[in-house]
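As a warm-up, study this chain.
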Amino acid sequence: MTDLTDLEPEPAVAAAVFGDRLDVVRQYAHDLAEHGEELGLIGPLELPRLWTRHVVNCGLLAPLLVAGRVGDIGSGAGLPGLVLAAARPDATLVLIEPMERRTDWLRAETERLGLTNVEVVRGRAEEVELDGWLDQATARAVTALSKLIPLTAPLVRTGGQLLFLKGARVDDEVTAARKVIARHHLVDVETLELGAELGVETTRVFRATLD
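Now compare it with the structure written out below.
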């Protein structure tokens, strides 16, 4: 069991981001801190920044979700999938993850948190067969847009959205992926910066619609 003395204290901004869902998110953060390193879900240096770098970072995406089926590609520890499921009980999160030990964690944690709006699917995005189209797809720290778009766009309905959490070089990725963006008929392509008004590290999001 992990020593939690290094766990970052819950920041005050968490209440603004998660509102009345904060208790569920708090439990998730505790569980991830306690078991994440031993299960290979997070690295040993993540506890001092678990809230601000990971949990709040993912939670900022929640207002952009529709009340539909949202896929999290390469869900891993549940970042952002479980955070979003906790924050948005009106949306169904489909957590797609190829590694068995990670899907075991996702299923167990879903049950511990009492979430009823989560589906866990084991497999790679390019291989899974989903029960219906996704309304949106998201991913965090998976791969560059030029590779990520072809993996995810086929899972999303026409008129649906891609919402990818990206790093500071997102605009460079967009430039490099311009042919892929055109090939997959993406429109309304934009990059957003979320969280500045809250005084936290901003979350960069690539957003596009499938035409």
